[in-house]
Amino acid sequence: MADVVVGGLRLRYEADGQGQPLMLVHGSWDDHHGWDLLVPFLLPSYRVFRYDRRGHGGSACPPGQGRISEDVTDLAGLIEELTTGPVHVVGHSYGATIALLLALDRPELCQTVTVHEPPLFGLLAGTSQAPLLAQVRARMEQVVSLLTDGQVERGTRLFVDEVGFGPGTWEHVLTPRLRETFIAHADTWLDQARDPGRLALEAARLATISVPVTITMGDQSLPWYAPVMHTIADAVPDAGLGVIAGSAHAPHLTHPAEFAAAVTARAQCQPSAR
Questions:
Q1: pLDDT for 268
Q2: Has residue 255 been placed in a domain?
Q3: I need a labelling partner for 7 at 20 to 30 A (CA). Which of 125, 136, 212, 224 fits?
């Protein structure tokens, strides 16, 4: 592990392997260790970078209300600091939203983008799937209430099993270390939950993405993800949508080989530089 200062903020990162640069962007509650099972499947082809997002793991946690736009700026600065050209960007959950925003704001930094279930639930507003939006928002409000009340482990477990990942994930998918990591980052998630821009990305803006995007989803995921993924795939001009059979919201933990195959299938179709 090493530290790099990007825009005055200290970020901790790790780099492994040789080949085309590939940047992994973890989701909420997590840190760079969430990718441990996936990285070996990528190393034969890529130089893999993974980092702790601000407020996570070994990276700095600046005071004040955070914004998802700051995470996008961090990611862009990290790519510029550590590489010499566009990279393949892979994001999970909240990190997937960050990856999509990078593709919009700094397309010259992106060779390809692969995202697994970015939680852009706002895309369901005004559609036939709006009841799902109301349901997931109500559950997130429960999580916020529990965390605010100091019931950190209970709130974290509620998010994992009933908002983000699916029933049984806390006990049967997350290792004890990952559970501790999630609990440790509850305050950072609570800060993110208070950012009104975190779930809002209109389909019309997605339609302006100019880089190749692969969207993946699990066939066992909670019900609000599939309609969002289809909406993103319909909106992004150069998009492919794939389903990872048997997986839910965490294929990097449960189906790393299959998830790596989805990443490399699109990336290997692209030239080495844009």
A1: 58
A2: yes
A3: 212
Strand order in the sheet with 9-16: 2-6, 9-16, 46-51, 20-25, 87-92, 110-116, 213-218, 239-244
The CATH number given to whatever domain includes residue 263 is 3.40.50.1820
Q: For the residues of the chain, what is the DSSP string, one character each? A: -EEEEETTEEEEEEEE-SSEEEEEE--TT--GGGGTTTHHHHTTTEEEEEEPPTTSTTS---SS---HHHHHHHHHHHHHHH-SS-EEEEEETHHHHHHHHHHHH-GGGEEEEEEE----GGGGTTSTTHHHHHHHHHHHHHHHHHHHTT-HHHHHHHHIIIIIS-TTHHHHTS-HHHHHHHHHTHHHHHHHHT-TTSS---HHHHTT--S-EEEEEETTS-TTHHHHHHHHHHHSTTEEEEEETT--S-HHHH-HHHHHHHHHHHHTTS-S--
Counting the structural domains of the chain, the total is 1
pLDDT tens sequence across 224-261? 999 999 999 999 999 999 999 999 999 999 999 999 99
pLDDT digits (tens, 9 = 90+) for 147-170: 999 999 999 999 999 999 999 999
User: What residue has token string 């319909």?
Assistant: 234
Q: Is residue 45 part of a domain?
A: yes
pTM across the whole model: 0.95
- Residue 61: other Cβ atoms inside 10 A: 15
User: 91: domain range?
Assistant: 2-122+200-267
CA-CA distance, 87 to 213, in Å (whole number)?
13
Determine, yes or no, domain membership for 152: no
Provide CB contacts within 8 A for 8, sequence distance 6+. Answer: none
The reply to whether 155 falls in a domain is: no
Contact assessment for residue 76 and residue 109, using Cβ atoms and an 8 Å cutoff: yes
